[in-house]
Design goal:
The complex is a heterodimer of chains A (205) and B (213). Chain A is mainly β and 205 residues long. In chain A, 10% of the residues lie in helices and 58% in strands. Classes of the chains: A mainly beta (205), B mainly beta (213). Strand 3 of chain A pairs antiparallel with strand 10 of chain B, so a sheet runs across the interface.
Chain lengths: 205, 213
């Protein structure tokens, strides 16, 4: 079973004859016998995933790394965090996915109006199953717990991922003042309710 | 008599008569004492070095710090890695050199001696065909985007992305491997068509980013 471990800005992926999928072109070095090939349309998720991506305008380019050895993976000196999933679902902005192990399935999830305001397309990617998922963030990733009765509000541009049973709403703080150009610079925010964890980065896209 | 790391992006070193420091032009952040900076062109190692650097297109211009005092170096907010050389040779691209002590000897050489095919591959990957070689006993400050990791090599082989490669020490075999298949030509490649294959005994420095400068 392949295992991922994060070392600051570098992800170590130890392969034991199996396959992981990583963002295209993100390999910086490897030892052992590893081959790299394009995971194909839909990031290896099959025709249906490919179709949904086309519709959603969500683009995620993955490559398959297969073999035996250690692959060093990094992207633009961004911080790396490994999230373990056990029959769970993680919702991630697709540009933040660095690598996923074999047992995980990627799919496109429509997120409605939210994407339009933050300029990220209409959909996010959901990672489900059992395995490990490595995500990148500009600065160290911060996990914020959401519990029932205590909703969490985050900036859409700082939002990276979420897990658990969460409902996401877009709240708009647009008043006549912001229309007049006197806004506080935060016209939209994301409100999470339910139970789970929301991951944000200390930077805005 | 070495580079002292102030933080991950800034280093400080001592300058004294006979212990000059050569650094990238414009990288001085501050100094104490009586220090003067004089521009030098090429690698400063005589006519051979000049021809070598002209050939390499390594136009990074340097300056030498002379006098007595302490100098602080940093460049564009890039991470600095200090490499200790114990009578070894460090191979690195000139654009990644921040500073080194003048008593180290510097030369320029071709990275891959594999004939025309390798030359073409080198040009295609943006990997410079020539690199600088620094040898002797002392320390060298290298620039990288996002910091470097040091990968020791003890006889095995390692593949490195040419864009993430920073440099290496020791006598390593460097070979540029092109695994260009049909899928790459139609734009469905893995993005890892070109790899540097290094083998032998030494250390390889790799940065956590695909950014060149």
């Amino acid at each position: 079973m392949a295992s991922l471990s994060a070392h600051k800005k570098m992800l170590h992926a130890d392969l034991t004859g199996d396959t992981i999928r990583a963002a295209q072109g993100s390999m910086v070095a490897y030892t052992g016998q590893v081959t790299f090939k394009n995971a194909g349309m839909g990031g290896g998720g099959g025709l249906r995933a490919a179709l949904r991506q086309r519709v959603a305008g969500e683009s995620i380019n993955l490559m398959e790394c297969q073999g035996q050895g250690r692959v060093y993976i990094a992207q633009s000196a961004l911080d790396v965090t490994v999230v373990g999933l056990s029959n769970d679902k993680l919702t991630v902005e697709s540009e933040h996915i660095l690598a996923v192990t074999d047992g995980l399935k990627l799919d496109v999830q429509f997120s409605g109006l939210r994407g339009m305001t933050s300029g990220q397309g209409l959909a996010t990617t959901s990672v489900s199953g059992t395995g490990q998922c490595a995500i990148t963030s500009d600065g160290p990733l911060i996990g914020l717990a959401v519990v029932p009765g205590q909703p969490l509000v985050v900036d859409p541009d700082a939002y990276v991922a979420g897990t658990g049973n969460l409902q996401m709403n877009l709240v708009s703080g647009v008043t006549w003042r912001s229309v007049m150009g006197e806004s506080g610079g935060e016209p939209f925010s994301l409100r999470f309710e339910g139970q789970g964890t929301v991951y944000i980065q200390p930077a805005e896209r | 008599m070495s580079f002292e790391q102030i933080n991950s992006k800034v280093v400080r070193t001592e300058v004294a008569p006979g212990r000059e420091v050569i650094a990238r032009r414009g990288s001085m952040l501050g100094y104490e004492g009586q220090v003067t900076f004089r521009p030098i062109s090429g690698q400063g190692q005589g006519i051979g070095g000049m021809i070598g650097s002209a050939l390499a297109g390594e136009s990074t211009s340097n300056m030498v710090a002379e006098g007595q005092g302490k100098v602080i170096y940093g460049f564009r907010g890039l991470h600095v890695t200090v490499v200790e050389l114990g009578n070894e040779t460090l191979t690195v691209e000139a654009s990644r050199l921040l500073a080194y002590h003048a008593h180290l000897s510097v030369g320029v050489e071709m990275i891959a001696q594999g004939g025309i095919r390798q030359a073409v591959a080198g040009a295609m990957t943006g990997q410079g065909l020539f690199t600088s070689k620094i040898s002797g006993v002392g320390t060298v400050a290298l620039l990288s985007h996002g910091g470097t990791v040091e990968l020791p090599l003890n006889g095995e082989q390692i593949g490195v992305d040419p864009q993430a490669y920073v440099g290496h020490t020791g006598a390593l075999n460097v070979d540029l491997k092109a695994a260009v298949g049909f899928r790459d030509l139609v734009g469905r490649g893995s993005g890892e068509a070109f790899q540097l294959q290094l083998s032998g005994h030494g250390r390889v420095y790799v940065q956590a980013s695909e950014e060149k400068f």
